[in-house]
Amino acid sequence: MKHWATVPQFALPTFYSLPTSITVVLHDTGSAPPRPTAQPVRPQTISELATATSRLHHLRDGEVVLYRVPSSRNWQARYKTQTGHWLRFSTRKRRLDDASRIACERYDEARFRERMGLAPAVKRFEEIARVCVADMTKEMAAGHGKRVFTAYIGVIERYLVPYFGQRYLSNISHKDVTEFEIWRNQQMKRPPKASTLLTFSSAFSRIHQTAIARGWISDRVPIPKLTVKGEKGTARPAFTAEEIALLRDHLLQWHAGVDGKTGEMRRLLRDYVDVLFLTGMRQGTESMNLRWKHIEWHTDAGRRYLRIWVSGKTGPRWLIAKHECVAALLRLHRHQPDLARMDFETLIASRSEQLVFRFENGEQPYEFNHVFRRLLQELGIEKSPAGTNRTLYSLRHTYATLELLAGTDIHTLAKQMGTSVVMLERHYSKLTATLAAEQLA
């Protein structure tokens, strides 16, 4: 037996059309209604169906989808590439017909670019540069990045983005690069050295590689390169033996009475300067990545030497530290609470992964350049007699100068410092000529 019931009319959205009443058939078996054998699925209400329909639209056989998100009144879109990946973007339009037109245009352009062997999506230079900088910053924070990344980021933010920011990378021509280099030199107020030009070129190339890696440009698109040929830089000035003595003597008490991170930074600088001066290693990558496991004792002819493994600009190598360097390492060990419980010999044998140059809380200072510059200013030895600025790198040149004056063979010195004989002769030609004259006279 069947019972017929009439459901009264209820309000519906104006775009939805239904009869004025709905007839529902109820089955009666002569007893209570049968229980469902499965969990009932909650039916969508008319309003839910209408909302879903208004927020989701499929175009081009489902390969282009328009949708809305609660946080925006504009239509968002996504389309599928030939590789099956979905690319998403905002149409920046509120009207459905405007958004549909823009989404289809982007889809058609992407398909054309793919047929031409190009990447389906394009981004402006500034967007790519922002991602590139973020990637380098993350690498440095994780301890994998290079110290030179700081220079790259400075070049990108100060020069490359202000000039190329709103352009498309694929549209940059040789003429654009030439005009940029003229503008850059005007901003710098001097012709850049070859090393500076190399930094600019490397930063520009990293942005290009970021675009390729993210699929924003094809590796088949030719991108012009920045000029790297420039005036060769001169060797950074060294310190005299008297200035080194003044510097190291002042560092003995420079941290005294100074609290907090500033005082700890000054104390740490003393040991950093000593290690650089007594080994000839490069400041930056070689020194700041130094870990206790890289230091060991080496015995030769019954005599023990401190040997340090470093890796940097020219690859990994062993170097021999001056005996006096042990005192600096002992001080560093003493101010590291997590390692101070073991004696120095045990520490060296432990192959510890801990960094050598770090604060007592385990953190590592990002760099020592600023505090070292302040020290030189206080002592009045920031500039050489020729008027050039001295830096931490001057300690490496001081090491080379004093070794050559002491009669160290230039081939041995080249291996110790991780450089070439040609490079040493180029930077210290006057010094080597003087030594030869003294030997020959």
Automatic annotation (TrEMBL):
SUPFAM superfamilies, A to Z: DNA breaking-rejoining enzymes
Domain Tyr recombinase: 234-441
Any Pfam family matching the protein: Phage_integrase
Keyword set, alphabetical order: DNA integration, DNA recombination, DNA-binding
Gene3D superfamilies registered for this protein in UniProt: 1.10.150.130, Intergrase catalytic core
InterPro entries per the UniProt record, alphabetical: DNA_brk_join_enz, Integrase-like_cat_sf, Integrase_catalytic, Integrase_recombinase_N, Tyrosine_recombinase_XerCD
PROSITE patterns linked: TYR_RECOMBINASE
Family statement: Belongs to the 'phage' integrase family.
Protein's recorded name: Tyrosine-type recombinase/integrase
